[in-house]
Amino acid sequence: MNLLILTTGGTIDKVYFDASSQYEVGTSTVPAVFEEAGVTLPWRLEPLMRKDSLELDDNDRAAIRKVCEGAAESHILITHGTDSMAVTAEALVGIAGKTIVLTGALAPARFRTTDAIFNLGLALGAVQSLTPGVYLAMNGTIFPAGKVRKNYQAGRFERTDTP
Hints:
Layout lengths: L2 E7 L4 E4 L4 E4 L4 H8 L5 E9 L6 H13 L4 E5 L5 H8 L6 E5 L12 H14 L3 E6 L2 E4 L3 E4 L4 E4 L4
Parallel strand pairs: 1-4, 1-5, 5-6, 6-7
Antiparallel strand pairs: 2-3, 7-8, 9-10
Pfam families: Asparaginase
Protein name: Asparaginase
GO molecular function: asparaginase activity
């Protein structure tokens, strides 16, 4: 199995700039995380954009979908900002023969305390073991696209189809 990793930006890849006292999306942290974890699965990284997910629009989602549809790989992991990750996941539903897993982080991967490394590991395991479809891997849980939302108050994702 070969894996395609698409990066779109989001908190997972944010860098803090002291001079401007703000965060900006930097280069992908996936290669460093995978190297440190000893990942030997063949993978290819394709940076698509460096945007906060609140800046993503329907044109961006169409571009992500087009790359997924045209990819030679049948297994795709997408790093994405958490604010609109569920929306992008729904925009990818129906791509035949692909297992697509989106993940992100509530704190940048470059921070000492972050959920990014855990979420990337969860997503890597999920993309290898799930059947074709679109999923989110966050907070130790795999969510099917269309049945998940970000709970801002609790700082986690949750299913939308449970009482």
